[in-house]
Amino acid sequence: MSEPDIYVEAVMRSDLPAWVTACGHLAPLMAIVVFLAPIPTMQQINREKTVGGKPLLPYSSMIANSFICVVYGFLKSEPKMMAPNSVGLLLGSYYFTTFRRHVSIGAANLPGTTSQHWNGLVIFITFILLVATTLTKDLAVEFIGKLGILICMIMFASPLSTMKVVIETKSADSIPLPFTIACVINCVLWSVVGVLDMNDFNVYFPNLVGLAAGLAQLVLKGLYGNRKSSDGEND
């Protein structure tokens, strides 16, 4: 980005409404809150020395998504994307390492195996670095941005599968209310920032999809509560 472009962008952002600027300050903080959400799960895994039936995909996808957002933020000179996702990358690596330490040898329902997840991450990170360093900046931004949307869609696969189970069992016990609310707030903030501040489709589109998924889960939580079965009573 040339100096005139940076100056024009700075002037445009200085004219933003105060509430949009506030969203820009809050969005990175809320993203870190969401990244911290699995800490209790990791404490449980460390305490019980087993991952039970938990999947590895949320943590490997967190690493992939955080890494691609850090690179994208670097290419776009967006500190508000780089900073929280750097934290997400570190936390995702910790979650992944903790999971690998306590997962059963030969487990293949994560989905796949831990080795497949590890190899996939190494290939993915190497590929992103090659794209970022070999393509022109504009092409790299466009390609990595669209790939980031795809990774976000993979991350949303888990909530979608959860909603299917909730509808089938008529119990929303599997939907963690505090985490879902945090995700909804996070998606609202980043949608506002993506549309009104950054004007970046690659930022606001996946967050609007995430917002829709989060709101759908809240509706299901309100409809079914924490009933253990279709004919059980609400807690």
TrEMBL record:
Q: Which InterPro entries match?
A: SWEET, SWEET_rpt
Any one GO CC term of this protein is:
Golgi membrane
- Family named by the database record: Belongs to the SWEET sugar transporter family.
Q: How does it sit in the membrane?
A: Multi-pass membrane protein
* Keyword terms: Cell membrane, Golgi apparatus, Membrane, Repeat, Sugar transport, Transmembrane, Transmembrane helix, Transport
Would I find Transit peptide among this entry's keywords? Answer: no
Location in the cell: Cell membrane; Golgi apparatus membrane
Q: What is this protein called?
A: Sugar transporter SWEET1
Its ancestry begins with: Eukaryota, Sar, Stramenopiles, Ochrophyta, Bacillariophyta
Pfam families membership: MtN3_slv (PF03083)
Q: Does the keyword Calcium apply?
A: no
The GO molecular function terms of this record are: sugar transmembrane transporter activity
Its transmembrane ranges are: 16-36, 56-75, 81-97, 118-137, 143-163, 175-195, 201-220
